[in-house]
Amino acid sequence: MKKTGYSFAVALAATRPGNLFTTHTAVAAGFDRFPPALVEQYLGRYAQEELGLSLREFLALGRQNPDDAGEPFNMAYLAMRGSGAANGVSRLHGQVSRQLFAPLFPRWPVDEVPIGHVTNGVHMPTWDSAAADQIWTEASGKERWQGTSATLEADLRSVSDEKLWAMRNTSREALVEYARESIGRQMAVVAAEPEAIARTKARLDPGILTLGFARRFATYKRPNLLLHDPGRLLRILNHPERPAQLIISGKAHPADHAGQALIQEWMRFIRRTESTARVFFLADYDMLLAERMVQGVDVWINTPRRPWEACGTSGMKVLVNGGINISQLDGWWAEAYTPEVGWALGDMLEHGEDPAWDAAEAEVLYELLEQQVIPEFFSRNEDGIPTAWVARMRESMAGLTPRFSASRTVREYTEQHYLPAASAYRLRAADKGAAARKLVDWQTAAAPRWAALRFGARTVETKGHQHFISAEVFLKDASPDTIRVELYADGVKGSGAVKYEMTRTRQLADRAGGYAYRASVSAARPASDYTARIMAHCDGIATHLEAGWILWQK
Ligand SMILES: *Cc1c(COP(=O)(O)O)cnc(C)c1O
């Protein structure tokens, strides 16, 4: 606006296609919302003097219903209205976000809410251990995380069992060494006896199955699912032939008392079982500690409540190091999991905070550990190698590491979003925003005309294997060039919805602005499955976002 002197509407239209809104939360409560009075107090003047907007117009940018004076100002809605595209951070989160934002797109099917996804990835060179780096370098060279990594998967598949298993052992030993030092320090701070410190350190065992989890202690992450039946957890860890140890870490937000209580529950369990169980809590969770843990653990556990883990990234950090995930089918794991690469909890459905469901999932977790994870780790060949375990490690490393690497993520953002956004912005802003001005004029002129559009009669003729469906459309003063007419049918058996453009066949002689549109569809489904709809049409706009008007034939 400052550069060109244009109105807010034109400046928004000029800049909007250059913005991508990446949404990160999976629950509506995660969006920042502010009371209208607060917005008025701090931004009312700015809106009026700098943007030339009334308070109502300004608040409308962050509201679902601009006429509801009580509705708070939602920052996510504001972001949506300022962007030319939007994305979630995993496939499932894209789906969840389409539901969360559906109120902004009334009358559109949820699947058409314009939010896609780019699944997060982690920067592998940051998280790989020295031992893992050596394996990957031998297999794929030093520059392996750059470029398209087309050969990474095949390269890693050719690494021998012996090498992979040796790497795993070295990495676990390094974590145990690190944990011994940290715990020694933690205990010395509270003036523990040297003998007690030595005993605790000795309980950490570099040769046994090492389970890890570390995260923010928030209730939706259910960090205490493993404590559901403490006796059973103890029996699992203390199995005489197949012992395991559990290393945990994490922090709760200073204001999250429920999260803090979950940490206290673990601390009480650890104190109570000090002499019997190998459970260790490492204090001061941060990226350095996370790095040690994801490099060393054999198994990474994650037990959030679906669908609240928008993506989750800690589990991706173990991939490069040969750690295996056992996780809820939520966030990234819902798209990564196959039986060859790890273990899954959950049924791909949401169950809210139902305690009975939590109990059932804890049961499944214990059973997986007892019957699959631990036996596979201890089932060794004559050379002492757990071949089934190593095969799973190899599948996880080869198949998942390239897919959940930041290289893939950055490439997708660049190709699917940033480059198209840059070109779209240049087109809109060129020539002092000529295209933006045209678009605003078009929107202003079209809005009242759309409101006047009507459907007339519908006719269906079935010949052989085709339905020929016609619809009368009354455009009044609107030009047929400004609309698009489609036949729409919901998907069946999990497939996507189907849409066919209808073509204008003739002008209706007797009434102004009347046209017949027609399309033919397969008669495999009843004609009543298909509904005609009219949408706005204008080259170069993001239809749903910038002209989200839609009319369905009754
Ligand atoms: C990776 C990482 C996270 C994110 O972990 P999630 O389990 O995906 O939430 C949080 N904190 C630290 C220190 C991390 O390294």
Task: Please provide a written account of the structure.
The two termini are 43 Å apart. This protein folds into three domains: 8-119 and 412-432, no CATH class; 124-138 and 168-404, 3-Layer(aba) Sandwich (Rossmann fold), CATH 3.40.50; 451-552, Sandwich (Immunoglobulin-like), CATH 2.60.40. Strands 8-7-6-9-10-11 form a six-stranded parallel β-sheet, sandwiched between helices. Strands 12-13-17-16 form a four-stranded antiparallel β-sheet, with no helix packed on it. 43% of the residues lie in helices and 18% in strands. It is α/β, with parallel strands linked by helices and 554 residues long. The radius of gyration is 29 Å and the shape is elongated. The protein has helices at residues 8-15, 36-51, 55-60, 75-81, 91-100, 124-127, 130-140, 152-157, 161-189, 194-203, 230-237, 257-272, 287-296, 314-319, 333-336, 355-378, 387-400, 406-452, 543-546; strands at residues 20-22, 33-34, 73-74, 85-88, 116-117, 209-216, 244-251, 279-282, 299-302, 324-328, 342-345, 454-463, 466-474, 483-489, 498-501, 503-507, 514-522, 531-536, 550-552. Bound molecules: pyridoxal-5'-phosphate (PLP). Residues 215, 285-287, 290, 312-314, 317 line the site of pyridoxal-5'-phosphate.
Summarize the structure.
This protein is α/β, with parallel strands linked by helices and 554 residues long.
